[in-house]
Design a protein that fits this description.
Largest sheet: none
Number of domains: 1
Order of helices and strands: HHHHHHHHH
Distance between the termini: 33 Å
Oligomer: single chain
Strand content: under 5%
Number of strands: 0
Number of helices: 9
């Protein structure tokens, strides 16, 4: 079906396409067990307080959260690795895909640790749960936007793949700006607690970027 669709001989392995089929099946399962997942992803961008209220006390990690998070990381890894290989005219390698997917889980683990540190620093676990929930769902919804872009750009060829990588970066930057806007909303809290400021800047912004650059270099 896809033979010859990607220009200049940059056909991707069958496993790459099969993983997209697996993601589609996973999303169908997610919609079945969690019908509000799309609405909550929209709230992550528009009104995160509604998102938090919808979660209520269920802000801990659940199997549904694990499925959603794993699928989002998988879609990110497939999108970026596919567009990168096509854009640079090289043969697709699974090493980049696996590095990106493992990086995704590492970033989530970092945020989980910081959640508890923020709770200890603020004297309330509520802030940590609220913060991580907002970050996680915003990132997941961001990559559900990038996923169809990655498929289309990879399918169209090198020029489209390069454009897709740039556009994906713009989408990621928009997500980053949204997070900083929420930091400004919490500026009074951060101003009173320098440890909170250091935790946020180092753990939630600087460290993930440093880890990403190191993983990209291999």
């Amino acid at each position: 079906m896809f033979e010859g669709a990607v220009r200049e001989g940059n056909a991707l392995p069958a496993g790459w396409w099969l993983l997209w089929v697996a993601i589609a099946c996973g999303l169908a399962l997610l919609r079945t067990v969690h019908p509000d997942c799309i609405r909550q992803s929209q709230w992550a961008w528009t009104n995160w307080r509604l998102l938090y209220q919808a979660k209520g006390d269920n802000t801990g990690w659940t199997l549904v959260d694990g499925l959603s998070n794993g699928l989002a990381g998988l879609s990110l890894s497939l999108s970026v690795s596919g567009m990168w290989s096509v854009a640079h005219g090289g043969v697709f390698t699974w090493s980049l895909f696996f590095r990106l997917w493992m990086l995704w889980f590492l970033m989530m683990a970092i945020r989980w640790c910081i959640r508890h540190l923020m709770g200890l620093a603020s004297g309330s676990s509520l802030l940590g749960r609220e913060w991580v929930l907002s970050h996680r769902v915003v990132l997941e919804s961001t990559f559900w936007v990038i996923a169809p872009l990655g498929i289309a750009a990879t399918f169209k060829g090198p020029e489209a793949a390069r454009f897709g990588l740039v556009l994906s970066g713009v989408i990621w930057l928009t997500c980053w700006i949204l997070r900083q806007h929420r930091v400004v909303m919490r500026l009074e809290l951060f101003g009173r607690n320098r440890l909170m400021t250091m935790l946020y800047l180092c753990a939630l912004e600087v460290l993930p970027v440093a880890v990403f650059c190191r993983a990209w270099q291999g």
